[in-house]
Write a structure and sequence with these properties.
It contains 16 helices and 27 strands. By secondary structure, it is of the alpha/beta class.
C-alpha cells in the first residue's frame, strides 16, 4: 500500500484476532500496537533499512502483552501512550491533537474513548497533507466497534456512549478516503458484534458501520446486547502493560521425551496437547488438556488456565512447537518447561487413553434408541440463543471446570460446540476432573439435518434447556 511512497506493513496475529502496523516513508518508520514477539517487527525494519522514530499504543491492551516499550528502548524511539492511566515507565503521553513529526511523516492523535477510557487513534500524514491512514485500535473497526465492558460491566454503558461519539467525531476529522487500520476486529474478543469487512475507508464505514447508521440509544442497546464473555486472562494483561513489559525475546524451550512429560504431569505440571484433536482422540496422556493448535490456542489456553501455570507442551511437529511457544509468549505464558514433538503417541507410553468421538447423526440415533445422554452445549450465550439441541444444557467451555468440579453426573456426557474445537477442550477438562465425555466433532449447522431435535430462537420450552448449569440436574 502506498501514498506518495508511504508504505504500510500489516503484521497479522490471527490467533488473537489482532493486527500491528509499521508505516515507513523515506527511511523513517513508526510502529503501532506491536506485540511481544518483536522479531516480526525487526525483520521489516531491517529489510526496509528504516529508522524507527516512534512507537504508538492506541490503548493499554487487554488481550496481549505489548512489545512497544522494549522496541522503543532498543531503538531509542519515542514511546507514545494515550494520556490518562498511571504508567510504571516514562512515555510521551498523547492528548487530543498531539502532533509528532518524523522527517516527512506527521502523526496526529485523536482522543477516542470508548473501548477503554484512555484511547487514541493516530492519523498518519505525509508532511501536512490529509491523513492517508488512521490507526484506530479498538475504536472504529471494520463494520463494528470495540467492546466497552473490559473495565467492568458498570462502566460499559457510559463507555459505549463515548464510543459512539468518538467514532462520529473521527469521521468529521478525517477525509472520506482515509484508510482505517484497526487493531481489533479479525476474530478478537475485543469486538462488540460481528465485523463486516466490506470496505476500509471512512466513506465505506459511513455506509455500513452501526455507529454511523444508528442513533445513540439504539447503538448503545445494540452494542451491549452483543457482549458475550471474554477470556479471563484479559484481567491480567492491562495491569502488566501499564506497569511495563520489560522482556520480549522468545524463550528457548527444551525438547523432551514423553517419559519426561509424564513425569512433569505427575508433579502437578499441566500437559497441554496441541496436536490436531483427531490425534488426541486416538491416544493421549491421562489428564492432558487438549487445545488444538489449529484453533485460537493462546486465547483458549489463557481462558481456562492461569497464566503462571507451569506447562509442558505436546505438538505435532517441530514447526508447530515453535509457533505454539510464540503464541503463548504473546500473552505471558513464560513457564514452559519443555516441548515433546510427536504426531502420534501410540507405542510411546503404556498408560495412554482415548476419547470417544461421534457426529450428530450418532447423537440422533442414540436419542431414537431411547438413550438419555446429558447433552452439553459448550458455545457462548449468543450462539446458544440462536438455537441448540433440544434438552441440552448450556455450559460454555471456559466454565466447565467451575460448574462441574465436585458435581460430575453419573450419566453419559455428550459435548458439542460449533465444530468440535471447544467441545474437545471441555472434554479434556472433564477427564482431568475424573469424568469422561463423548465429543460430537461435527458442525452444529448440520445437527437438525442429521435428525437431532433442535430448539430455535425463543421457541424452547424444555426445562432442561437452561442458560445456566443447575447442579441438582446433574446430581
Amino acid at each position: 500500500m502506498t501514498n506518495n511512497a508511504l508504505r504500510i506493513h500489516t503484521i497479522a496475529t490471527p490467533g488473537l484476532g489482532d493486527r500491528s502496523y509499521i508505516a515507513i516513508l523515506d527511511g523513517w518508520a513508526v510502529a503501532v500496537d506491536v506485540q511481544r514477539d518483536l522479531d516480526r517487527v525487526e525483520e521489516i525494519l531491517a529489510e526496509e533499512k528504516a529508522t524507527l522514530g516512534a512507537v504508538f499504543e492506541t490503548h493499554i491492551h487487554n488481550d496481549y502483552l505489548t512489545g512497544g516499550l522494549v522496541l522503543a528502548r532498543r531503538h531509542q524511539a519515542q514511546y507514545v501512550v494515550p494520556a490518562g492511566p498511571r504508567l510504571g515507565y516514562s512515555a510521551t503521553r498523547a492528548d487530543d491533537g498531539t502532533r509528532i513529526d518524523l522527517g516527512p511523516l506527521t502523526v496526529r492523535s485523536i482522543t477516542t474513548p470508548g473501548h477503554t477510557d484512555a484511547h487514541a487513534a493516530f492519523s498518519v500524514h505525509v508532511e501536512d497533507g490529509s491523513a492517508a491512514y488512521a490507526f484506530t485500535g479498538g475504536s472504529l473497526l471494520l463494520g463494528a466497534t470495540g467492546r466497552s465492558d473490559l473495565l467492568g460491566r458498570d462502566k460499559a454503558e457510559g463507555l459505549a456512549r463515548q464510543q459512539y461519539w468518538s467514532v462520529r467525531r473521527m469521521a468529521r476529522l478525517l477525509a472520506p478516503e482515509t484508510r482505517i487500520m484497526p487493531t481489533h476486529g479479525f476474530g478478537s474478543f475485543c469486538v462488540a458484534g460481528s465485523p463486516v469487512s466490506s470496505g476500509d475507508t471512512v466513506a465505506d464505514q459511513l455506509s455500513i458501520n452501526p455507529a454511523y447508521l444508528l442513533g445513540e440509544d439504539e447503538f448503545v442497546k445494540d452494542s451491549l446486547s452483543k457482549l458475550d464473555a471474554y477470556p479471563s486472562y484479559y484481567a491480567f494483561m492491562g495491569p502488566r502493560n501499564a506497569g511495563g513489559v520489560s522482556t520480549a525475546d522468545l524463550p528457548d524451550v527444551p525438547r523432551v521425551d514423553l517419559g519426561s512429560v509424564a513425569a512433569t504431569a505427575a508433579h502437578g505440571h499441566l500437559v497441554v496437547d496441541t496436536r490436531p484433536r483427531a490425534d488426541w482422540f486416538e491416544g493421549h496422556l491421562a489428564g492432558s488438556l487438549s487445545v488444538d493448535a489449529q484453533g485460537a490456542l493462546a486465547t483458549w489456553l489463557g481462558w481456562v488456565t492461569a497464566i503462571d501455570t507451569p506447562i509442558t507442551l505436546i505438538t505435532e511437529s517441530e514447526d508447530d512447537g515453535l509457533e505454539v511457544v510464540r503464541e503463548l509468549h504473546r500473552i505471558g505464558f513464560d513457564d514452559i518447561r519443555g516441548v515433546h514433538v510427536a504426531r502420534s503417541l501410540e507405542g510411546q507410553q503404556d498408560d495412554l487413553i482415548s476419547t470417544t468421538v461421534v457426529d450428530f447423526a450418532a447423537l440422533a440415533a442414540e436419542l431414537r434408541d431411547g438413550g438419555q445422554p446429558l447433552v452439553i452445549d459448550t458455545r457462548e450465550v449468543s450462539e446458544w440463543r440462536t438455537g441448540h439441541v433440544a434438552g441440552a444444557i448450556h455450559v460454555p467451555a471456559h466454565d466447565i471446570e467451575r460448574d462441574f468440579a465436585g458435581a460430575l453426573p453419573r450419566v453419559q456426557r455428550w459435548l458439542y460446540c460449533g465444530a468440535g474445537f471447544r467441545a474437545t477442550i471441555a472434554a479434556s477438562i472433564l477427564e482431568r476432573l475424573g469424568g469422561s465425555a463423548v465429543v460430537i466433532d461435527d458442525s452444529v449447522a448440520v445437527a437438525s439435518r442429521r435428525g437431532v431435535p433442535w430448539c430455535t430462537g425463543g421457541d424452547c420450552t424444555d426445562t432442561l434447556c437452561t442458560a445456566g448449569l443447575a447442579v441438582d440436574v446433574l446430581a
